[in-house]
Amino acid sequence: MTPRPLLHLEGAAVFAFSLFAYHSNHGSWSLFALLFLAPDLSMLGYLANARTGASAYNAFHTYVGPLLLLLYSIGAGRPMLLPLAFIWLAHLGFDRMLGYGLKYPTHFKDTHLSPDRHTFNTTVLQAVAKTE
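User: That's the sequence. What structure does it adopt?
Assistant: Structure tokens below.
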């Protein structure tokens, strides 16, 4: 098995875990529905340019943010933040499960899960060189 299907499976596992944890913590499903797509507001950075868009998108689409929020919620005794961490994790897992990955500064569809990204492609290298 190649790494890409494993990353999709990993995303599905994170999504399932997040839903289970959210349910176990008696989270409001209306809040879940309201905030599930909130991390995608970071795509507005693409209105400026691809580099800004990729940076903003990646800042809200790595596991670091929600895991730090989860740790803070538990460590600081602030359980009201747990649902936000689980919603954020669920969003990221869902994205990875569907094949949406972290962005490169070339264009929106150039991600770490893109099949073309994993072959030697001089066009991509030239595009990256032009943006730097």
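The chain has six helices and no strands.
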